[in-house]
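seq:
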Amino acid sequence: MARTLDTPSPALRAPDNAAPGRRSRRSPGRRLRQSAGRQHHAGPLTYVLLVVAAVVSLFPLYWNVVAASHTGERVVEAPAPLLPGSRLLDNLTFAWNQVDMGAALVNTTIVASLVAVSTVLFSTLAGFAFAKLPFRGRGLLLSLVVATMTIPPQLSVIPLYQIVTDLGWVDQLQSVVLPSLVAAFGVFFMRQFLVEALPVELVEAARMDGAHSLRIIWHVVFPVARPAMAVLGMLVFVQAWNDFFWPFIALTPDGNPTLQVALAGLGAGNHTVDQAVVLTGALLSTVPLLLVFAFLGKHIVGGITAGAVKS
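struct:
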């Protein structure tokens, strides 16, 4: 007799030995698959924690603005002021004119941009070589590159300054840019990303199609590595923007300074330091970074999330 549509198939029938009234247990894998498409909503506690984290993160910036709007004597008093004052424009004008803040801002932008672009470029090329190109001594060379991260930068100051002096680059921007063209952290970071993100079959397929190495790097490696390149560029740019130790040695506040070097000469006079003016200069050096994140934040986050989901 043919089975009707109302008759359940044997595969869908409940087992005979199942206890009546008891649900069959679902496997963990099935439960995960069923809950994968659900949209989880945050509870009130999540929003409270996010608000607290935002307030704690933004409070130093807020107090920097408050301190920049008071006099130096009021800033060092106890208790410290928590509300803005009326001297913000006066402190901004004084800090801008006391040192050549405009030239320092241009110099810092040039240095940070060149260092970020060169570090991302060279680190991506080296990371691709260490990740996907087989050659003799690859593991040893990678170990040496990683080992350089353990060397304190203070140990290389004297020989590096001697080289800069012999080349006549003291108080020149190239003395700050050239030693930072590539970083061991960037090479290791890009290598770790490309090991997982770039299939070796993709590189081999491009070679079989007749693509040379430069074309493979431009059309295969760079598109795959774009999320990691965005993150690395952001980190290197912020680090170069805030770098103080080596620029303070290679540059002078009265010659060709970066922002951090120029800030070292702010507020000094009559054997005292005006902390309000110093914090005003720090505020001026922070605003460009905030603008960069405000305009490029979506692109940076989009680049990060583009490589976070596997198909």
